[in-house]
Amino acid sequence: MPMEVEKEILEDLRNRVQLSSLALPSICFYTFINAHNGLNCSAISQDGSLVAGGFSDSSLKVWDMSKIGQSAKPGENDSIPSEHFLGTEGEGSFTLFHGHSGPIYSATFSPLGDFLLSSSSDSTIRLWSTNLNANLVCYKGHNYPVWDVQFSPVGHYFASSSHDRTARIWSMDRIQPLRIMAGHLSDVDCVQWHANCNYVATGSSDKTVRLWDVQSGECVRIFIGHRSTVLSLAMSPDGRFMASGDEDGNIMMWDLSSGRCISPLMGHNSCVWTLAFSREGSLLASGAADCTVKLWDVTTSMKGQKIEESLNAVNLTLTFYKKFVLGGMGQNLHR
């Protein structure tokens, strides 16, 4: 069996492992040092081979993980292995991409890692080739800073959100947006694709989360419950649930089919900047401005939702029985 096939099978098995408090995932941390230029965002390719960082000086830097530590001089950082750090200085340690004229606020890799998107305060989105190390396209459409950009799970299409109160759907081969999704009353701070690519969720400074139909550009759900700016979003792999984090440190789990909040996840005391589900969907990771990363067991909340659905079904059956069966019997007795 070819080594590539074995690697794919092993990766698939690893993604199916059910994680919990008793079976936590293996974790690898990369630490940025000398990030005095103002690191605003970071992204990791799906295979973990590339790491990108967007900076306030309008630079975009990409590190190849297979080369980290090779350029370090003997004797440097002896106390801690050099491959644990992503230095922002030194020759040959990263690939530098220049093109934006303002701070970079978001970066995202395509599913295969061959392309990289970045968004900036210069109101543009740029597409970069990680193979050619060059800028391919500059997308112009937003009128104000673009806070977030995300590739779709299948690639080719991507979504962006901006200070102009809109989110937009783009295609790599067109310089103009395919859809403009307007409805939020303030900045659209974050955007996230649904697993089936037919829907896009957006979080806003108007304290709401909206779910949009990609085909029509219409809003199909409005999630209300946050009391501050919604800064981060994550979709469960099965497409049933969504998590949203806000400026106060609150995280809410939503049932997409009903639009209801299943349960709030309380623990952070500052801005929740990022959220991510594990591959099999049993854990949720959150990173916040309180200098902590937390892992949440979301299966408990989902089980509670299933129990509630079962109870509702039982109550509906009892109501039907009392109203139509017993009611009908009573009418027959009177006759």
UniProtKB/TrEMBL annotation:
GO terms for cellular component: transcription factor TFIID complex. GO terms for biological process: transcription initiation at RNA polymerase II promoter. Coiled coil: none annotated. Keywords: Repeat, WD repeat. It comes from the Eukaryota. GO terms for molecular function: RNA polymerase II general transcription initiation factor activity. This is Uncharacterized protein. The lineage of its organism: Eukaryota, Viridiplantae, Streptophyta, Embryophyta, Tracheophyta.
